[in-house]
Automatic annotation (TrEMBL):
It comes from the Eukaryota. InterPro entries: Spc2/SPCS2. It is a multi-pass membrane protein. PANTHER family: MICROSOMAL SIGNAL PEPTIDASE 25 KDA SUBUNIT, SIGNAL PEPTIDASE COMPLEX SUBUNIT 2. It is found in: Endoplasmic reticulum membrane. Belongs to the SPCS2 family. Keywords: Endoplasmic reticulum, Membrane, Transmembrane, Transmembrane helix. The keyword Endoplasmic reticulum applies. Component of the signal peptidase complex (SPC) which catalyzes the cleavage of N-terminal signal sequences from nascent proteins as they are translocated into the lumen of the endoplasmic reticulum. Enhances the enzymatic activity of SPC and facilitates the interactions between different components of the translocation site. It comes from Penstemon davidsonii. This is Signal peptidase complex subunit 2.
Length: 117
């Protein structure tokens, strides 16, 4: 069976490998949503952090303002979900599900400012 070229596959027993694949995808998604990687534009930009504790399947993704003191800074948003939701039993990433979750979080972050006004 031939692997697809753009298919993201990981070793489900390798904690660092799983986190790396997810973090790389987050970078792609954020760029795709129109946020530059260096965040040097009119708004404060995004600071994105992720956690996947050893011996845990719970991945936490947090989006905050790169400059929390700025007048245009927004409240941070985050989710914590099991990585088992985004990978098949063979270790292939189900990118559509992960993209949906991350894009939802970015949308929540972007909307936060509108609620507070």
């Amino acid at each position: 069976m031939e692997e697809k070229k753009n298919e993201k596959k990981t070793n489900l027993f390798d904690h660092n490998s799983i986190k790396h694949v997810l973090d790389e995808s987050v970078t792609e998604i954020v760029k795709n949503k129109g946020f530059p990687e260096d965040g040097s534009f009119n708004s404060t930009g995004l600071a994105i952090t992720s956690k996947l504790p050893r011996f845990s399947d719970m991945y936490t993704l947090t989006i905050t303002s790169a400059d929390p003191q700025s007048i245009s800074a927004k409240p941070p948003v985050e989710f914590t979900k099991s990585v088992t939701k985004w990978f098949t039993k063979d270790g292939v990433m189900v990118e559509g599900l992960f993209w949906k979750d991350v894009e939802g979080l970015i949308n929540d972050y972007v909307k936060e400012n509108k609620k507070s006004k």
